[in-house]
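Field reference: "sequence" (input) and "structure" (output). Example, Diacylglycerol kinase:
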Amino acid sequence: MLRLWRATINTRNGLAFAIRSEQAVREELCALALSVPLAWLIGTTTMRRVELVAAVAFVLVVELLNTAIEKLADRLTTDHDLKIGQVKDMGSAAVGVALLMAGLFWLFALAERMGAI
């Protein structure tokens, strides 16, 4: 039970730090909060609504991992390093792919709601 409590505290601390230090995390949390009522309006089934919210939550997860990579890379060196730049770019690309996936889920659900599919 103590281990679970400590893990919960670490989670809270990590999320709080990310919220304080990263604009993208704050924006994605707002998107997540907006996705709940919008998913209720757009989703045609309960499962589709869950999928829509989960797609936005997935973007947040990837952003948190990208932020962790960037913070670690910045801690290693503040000098310009080609390899570290490539690692940061890959993290950014992961966020981009997650955003694309989420956008496609939402477009598909919207088309489904409008009867186009």
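The domain at 23-114 is CATH 1.10.287.3610 (Helix Hairpins).
The radius of gyration is 17 Å.
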